[in-house]
């Protein structure tokens, strides 16, 4: 050949062909082979990593599903702790089964023997079994619909053409699959090595361009198989050829995505501003702007939202204060109406008596004997004292409400204060007062006049509201650093809702329609204020045993 070339000179065209052959065609061919080889290696690595990633994703989805079920079972088990008997437990379990259809069955078993009777997986009925050990040693067993598991396992792989199989780790029965193929399943299963690594994604199989991956999970026991199909292989090989076009498309999509994302965030925040303004215009002063703040949120929008929320907070605060003042004004109005009502009603009777008996004594046309005069004067005196007590009650209210009561605390024997209080009580009905405190020398810390006013008021109330021929009982007992004095009388049981209101102003046990006794309805309100001013406490009780009972807790000296 050398002799041929030496004897014959090549033409220009032939030289270009020869040079092209050695300088372009061969290098390009070699480069093509190398690039193709590199491309194939790259695609092969990509296929392997993708198959491994999918196996891990499915494994994680299994873990998430298992943890979710275990979490739900733990919540159900914790709720079952509050039920007293098996019937209530079963009712609750039935309710859970009805509201959560992916539970085919939910039951409680007593021991592991019964637990083992549940087959972990059933391919015919398509279910899987999970259990949770309860606090009392029993097991909560859940039979789960595998359709729900399948839906969750492969939701992130929608559109992927790889064949994915999830098998029972012990029996190798198929639990769930994606892109199922009988041929692919048999091929993937037949190429499995005899010894499997645990909890690690492992590549196996004979075809390098169609890698198979298995992941043998130990908890829960499951085997994940990923088979790279022919369609996936072809798509991956053509990737490099189309990567420039794809890069351009990705760049365009990225630009569209960023601009679209910025516009959507801006629109959402402006829409929040509009909604808040409309809410304020309709009187909803508690509404606040909740911006979606991120790198796409402009400073001006954040500043506007912050200042708007600050302004609305001030308006809401003023609105709340205005509502509070209106409520106080309404209460003051009601107090004034009740006071006028009560004073006009309660003052009328003693004033009428005083006026009548005074007019009788001043008459000159009749002769009044001394006994009648004395009786009339006693009535006038008694009604005057009643007026005085009502006026004192009204005058002490502002001091109680303003916390301006002046008390002089000193040690006082409880037996002497009870005796003096009984002596001052007006017991016109002659009801028996049983004093069980007279032999109690214990001293309490209190103001002499105020504590006497407290017990006089309580004993008079007990006499006023007790049943006929029933005694009034006064007892005492010591508890820690308190002396408890109880005033009891026989009375119908008072409902708890009514009992709570008896410490309010102008509140009585008998209302306007059923009123049979006199009084302003201020007694218990004043008593409570006086007791609390002396660092004491007062409580009301009403039941079948005691009727009506008032307990005063005073500090021991």
Q: Explain this structure to me?
A:
- With 557 residues, the chain is of the alpha+beta class.
- The protein folds into 3 domains: 12-235, no CATH class; 317-403, Helix Hairpins, CATH 1.10.287; 405-555, 2-Layer Sandwich (Heat Shock Protein 90), CATH 3.30.565.10.
- The protein has 14 helices and 16 strands.
- Helix 10 crosses helix 14.
- The longest helix is centred in the first third of the chain and has 69 residues, at 12-80.
- The protein is elongated.
- Mean pLDDT is 77; it is low at 512-517.
| Topology as a string of helices (H) and strands (E) | HHHEHEEEHEEHEEEHHHHEHEEHEEHHEE
Give the terminus-to-terminus CA distance. Answer: 134 Å
Binned strand content: 15-25%
C-alpha Rg (nearest Å): 47 Å
Uncertain parts: 512-517
Strand element count: 16
Let me know the largest β-sheet: 5 strands, antiparallel
Helix and strand content put the structural class at alpha+beta
Q: Which shape, going by the Cα principal axes?
A: elongated
Arithmetic mean pLDDT: 77
Helix content: 40-55%
For the record, the count of structural domains works out to: 3
Our count of helices gives 14
Q: Which strands sit side by side, in order, in the main sheet?
A: 6-5-9-8-7
């Amino acid at each position: 050949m050398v002799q041929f070339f030496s004897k014959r000179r090549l033409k220009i065209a032939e030289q270009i062909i020869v040079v092209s052959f050695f300088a372009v065609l061969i290098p390009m061919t070699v480069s093509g082979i190398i690039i193709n080889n590199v491309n194939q290696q790259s695609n092969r690595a990509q296929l392997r990593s993708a198959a491994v990633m999918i196996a891990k994703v499915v494994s994680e989805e299994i873990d998430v599903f298992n943890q979710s079920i275990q979490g739900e079972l733990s919540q159900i088990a914790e709720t079952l702790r509050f039920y007293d008997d098996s019937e209530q437990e079963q009712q609750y379990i039935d309710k859970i089964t009805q509201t959560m259809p992916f539970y085919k069955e939910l039951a409680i078993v007593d021991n592991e023997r019964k637990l083992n009777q549940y087959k972990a997986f059933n391919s015919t009925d398509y279910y899987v079994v999970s259990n949770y050990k309860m606090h009392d040693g029993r097991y909560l067993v859940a039979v789960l619909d595998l359709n729900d598991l399948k839906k969750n396992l492969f939701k992130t792989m929608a559109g992927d053409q790889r064949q994915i199989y999830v098998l029972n780790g012990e029996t190798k029965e198929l639990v769930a699959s994606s892109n199922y193929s009988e041929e692919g399943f048999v091929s993937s299963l037949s190429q499995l090595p005899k010894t499997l690594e645990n909890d690690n994604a492992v590549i196996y199989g004979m075809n390098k361009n169609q890698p198979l991956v298995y992941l043998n999970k130990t908890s829960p026991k499951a085997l994940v198989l990923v088979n790279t199909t022919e369609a996936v292989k072809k798509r991956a090989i053509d990737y490099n050829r189309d990567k420039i076009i794809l890069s351009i498309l990705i760049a365009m999509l990225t630009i569209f995505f960023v601009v679209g994302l910025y516009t959507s965030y801006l629109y959402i925040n402006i829409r929040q501003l509009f909604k808040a303004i409309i809410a304020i215009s309709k009187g909803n002063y508690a509404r606040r702007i909740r911006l979606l703040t991120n790198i796409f949120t402009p400073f001006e929008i954040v500043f506007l939202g912050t200042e708007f929320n600050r302004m609305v907070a001030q308006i809401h605060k003023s609105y709340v204060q205005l509502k509070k003042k209106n409520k106080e004004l309404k209460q003051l109005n009601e107090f004034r109406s009740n006071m006028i009502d009560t004073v006009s009603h309660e003052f009328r009777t003693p004033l009428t008596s005083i006026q009548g008996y005074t007019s009788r004594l001043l008459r000159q046309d009749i002769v009044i004997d001394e006994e009648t005069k004395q009786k009339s004067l006693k009535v006038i005196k008694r009604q005057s004292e009643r007026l005085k007590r009502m006026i004192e009650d009204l005058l002490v209210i502002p001091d109680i409400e303003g916390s301006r009561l002046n008390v002089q605390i000193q040690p006082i024997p409880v037996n002497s204060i009870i005796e003096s209080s009984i002596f001052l009580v007006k017991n016109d009905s002659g009801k028996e007062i049983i004093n069980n405190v007279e032999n109690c020398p214990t001293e309490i810390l209190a103001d002499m006049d105020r504590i006497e006013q407290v017990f006089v008021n309580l004993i008079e109330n007990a006499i006023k509201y007790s049943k006929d021929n029933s005694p009034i009982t006064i007892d005492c007992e010591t508890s820690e650093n308190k002396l408890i004095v109880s005033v009891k009388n026989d009375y119908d049981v008072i409902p708890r809702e009514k009992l709570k209101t008896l410490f309010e102003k102008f509140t009585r046990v008998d209302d306007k329609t059923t009123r049979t006794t006199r009084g302003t309805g201020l007694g218990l309100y004043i008593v409570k204020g006086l007791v609390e001013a002396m660092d004491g406490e007062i409580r009301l009780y009403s039941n079948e045993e005691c009727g009506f009972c008032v307990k005063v807790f005073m500090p021991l000296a």
